[in-house]
Specification:
Largest sheet: 6 strands, parallel
Structural class: alpha/beta
Low-confidence stretches: 88-105, 174-178
Shape: elongated
Helix content: 40-55%
Radius of gyration: 21 Å
Number of helices: 11
Order of helices and strands: EHHEEHHHEHEHHEEHEHEH
Number of strands: 9
Mean pLDDT: 80
Distance between the termini: 55 Å
């Protein structure tokens, strides 16, 4: 049974304290609100926090600790707010930013949700995501390629290390014929972007997703709409990369701007491109081998974490292809 909602008020002493504790343009306020899941109203030097008792108490304690830092004339940053939200981990240990080692968990605190590496391969993948600016991950369905990338992106956004998440997917089946599908643009591309939304919904509540998308902090778009853009301070995830052509992959990879990170996921065995069209994923992996800051992770059927039947199905198809 959930706790009864409560409301608490914190009075800030002056404008300087308000700016330090809430952050520029309320950056820290939004960070605390989105992680704890409370409602926060800042007005005339007062903070009103509403929500379930445990969540409100957690948010209140974070603000009080920030006030202590301010009074002690210590700097307040997004990383420091994340440290406090993580329960006071010492500097250098930031679970919200990713695992410290392949076996360490990536913790995302959205209610009772916890995300961690469940196989050795996933641990290697999370380590690569933490240490590299460009990561390619190849593997069969059910290995967590997309889910873990989105989880790391959400953690980075909440910690303030990036300012935007861009989720991208090729709309292969529609090709150049999106205009012939019924509905507006959103209705046309929604079927191709749905798997990315599913991953987001498992990590964040609906209201947080709606708020992030309305503020352009999370963007979901088809691959064709990346042309001509440069993305700074962002984590960009290309899902189903095996369905990108070589020119499309080159176009996508060159969207990387300052303080940007790119993840490309794909399963080479599920190429939906027209016969005779080379996959940009395989081509890119061959080209980037050995470049500093780039990692290629290969997951196998041993890393499948869906229903046990998924691994058996993958093995059955592999046997039929060998025959």
């Amino acid at each position: 049974m959930a706790d009864a909602p409560i409301s608490v008020t914190i009075s800030l002493e002056n404008h300087d304290e308000e700016l330090a504790v809430l952050g520029s343009r309320d950056q820290f306020l939004r960070q605390i609100r989105d992680v704890t899941g409370v409602k926060i109203l800042a007005r005339h030097g007062e903070l009103r926090i509403d929500g379930d008792r445990d969540k409100v108490e957690r948010a209140k304690s974070v603000f009080e600790e920030l006030r202590t830092l301010y009074k002690n004339r210590q700097p307040i940053t997004s990383a420091e707010v994340s440290r406090i939200l993580d329960g006071g981990c010492p500097p250098g240990q930031k679970p919200i930013d990713g695992p410290a080692s392949p076996a360490a968990p990536l913790e995302l605190r959205e209610g009772s949700k916890s995300v961690r590496a469940r196989t050795e391969g996933q641990g290697e993948y999370l380590k690569a995501l933490r240490e590299n600016e460009l990561v390619f991950v190849l593997g069969p369905a059910g290995t967590g390629k997309t889910y873990l990338a989105v989880a790391v992106a959400v953690a980075a956004l909440r910690s303030g290390s990036i300012k935007k998440i861009v989720l991208v997917r090729p709309a292969v089946e529609a090709g150049e014929h999106l205009g012939f599908l019924p509905g507006d643009l959103e209705a046309k591309i929604n079927p191709y972007l749905r798997p990315l939304l599913d991953a987001l919904h498992d990590l964040m509540d609906f209201e947080a997703i709606r708020r992030y998308m309305s503020n352009d902090l999370i963007e979901i778009a088809p691959l064709a709409y990346m042309r001509g853009r440069t993305l700074n301070d962002a984590m960009i995830i290309l899902d189903e990369g095996q369905n990108a052509t070589i020119p499309q992959m080159k176009m996508f990879l060159t969207r990387m701007g300052t303080n940007a990170r790119i993840v490309v996921t794909g399963d080479p065995s599920q190429n939906d491109l027209p016969p005779g069209t080379a996959s940009g994923l395989n081509d890119a992996v061959g080209r980037v081998h050995g470049i500093p800051g780039v990692s290629v992770v290969r997951l196998t059927k041993a890393d499948i974490v869906r229903h046990p039947l998924v691994q058996a199905i993958v093995e059955a198809y592999e046997k039929s292809q060998e025959g």
